[in-house]
Amino acid sequence: MQFQNTLTFAQQLDAEDILRKYRKEFYFPQIEGRQVIYFTGNSLGLQPKLAQSYVDEIMGDWRMLGVEGHFHADKPWWDYHERLAGPLAKIVGAEREEVSVMNTLSVNLHLLMVSFYNPTKTRFKILCEEKAFPSDQYLLNSQVRCHGLDPEETIVEVKKREGEHFWRTEDVRAKIEELGDELALVLIGGVNYYNGQVFDMEGITKAGKAVGARVGWDLAHAAGNITLKLHDWDVDFAAWCSYKYMNSGPGNASGVFIHKNHLGNTDIQRFEGWWGTKKETRFLMKPVFEPMETADAWQISNPPVLALAPYLASLQLFEEVGMDALIAKRKRIVAYLEFILNEIAQAVEGSFEIITPKDRGCQLSVLLHGQGRPLFDYLMKHGVIADWREPNVIRLAPAPFYCSYEDMYRFGQILKDGILTQND
Ligand SMILES: *Cc1c(COP(=O)(O)O)cnc(C)c1O
């Protein structure tokens, strides 16, 4: 389709958008009385209007039932988390028993590393991407130190090539092959938080496993954004937070994936707690841990039901819409945003470039040339909520659930005015 950078054209795309009614299902912040153009669904998704009633339900059950809510609420609390596994399994391409919800993302990656990073004298290295999300760097470093190893010798980073803004799959593969028998674990962000790149998860998983390593993915920017087939790709483990594209609310619970091959394995190293032991016998309070035969074996505590409630509400919307429809709109709206950005980049030559490669999801990262921060402040002042990353990058993620094509057009107008004002 030939795009046009006009209001009429954007409105026509909105009229054809089968997801357009979902825009009204979310609360938008306002700046100076006007609904914002929201580009930070990759950081904190907007609140679904449905969320409140799900939270109210728990508050009501607690008020009316007290402890009895664990078993006698309409949605009993003791296995509330199980309600999330089915919808999530569809989103990440897993079987239901391979998915659980617990804790938060960095915590879960630590717990999963206990199970899947078991260094030996000869096989101990970890492969990750350079400049991974800071929490991932800290967790890899501290895990390695816990094993008495030196992070410098243990953690190997795949670098971008000089002058390039993205990682090349062939470079990741080459490193995996070079490390070979020494490689214990590959752990990479499936969608990079900075440049928005989608890694070839299937190919990299295959390559890692071919040399005998375990392969895990941090899916913080991938879950609810791109097509995932964790089971079929034979990924060992993965985890994601739910507050980015999954719209579950600030700091909310994380989902985990553990491949079926590892379920029911009583030899696996794992930090255990009472919620991971068999449901049938859990309350007999026996001294022996009998793991659930699902990813729930990794559950340690009884779940924070008040937090899971808005997550479940959000998943209800994902169930209704389905990832295929979301991804179809995401591709189109990102392409439209790219078209508008390119028009402006041509009109005001040398002002910025898009550094996100073609393998991408919802996010376009724009590297500004010249004075970036004042332009970013200008955008915020004019009702655009975007995200600033040092030294000079603005991240734009038009989440398909609630962003409109008209938003993209209006943003383009504001951006152009902003650049021209800065240049004056
Ligand atoms: C957002 C994000 C996190 C956040 O971790 P929390 O434990 O939820 O605070 C971790 N890793 C990546 C790659 C992220 O993008």
TrEMBL record:
Assigned GO CC terms: cytoplasm
Pathway(s): Cofactor biosynthesis; NAD(+) biosynthesis; quinolinate from L-kynurenine: step 2/3; Amino-acid degradation; L-kynurenine degradation; L-alanine and anthranilate from L-kynurenine: step 1/1
Enzyme class: hydrolase
Pfam families reported for this sequence: KYNU_C
GO BP of this protein: anthranilate metabolic process; L-kynurenine catabolic process; L-tryptophan catabolic process to kynurenine; NAD+ biosynthetic process; quinolinate biosynthetic process
Subunit-level organization: Homodimer.
Protein name, UniProt field: Kynureninase
Native source organism of the sequence: Maribacter luteus
Lineage: Bacteria, Pseudomonadati, Bacteroidota, Flavobacteriia, Flavobacteriales
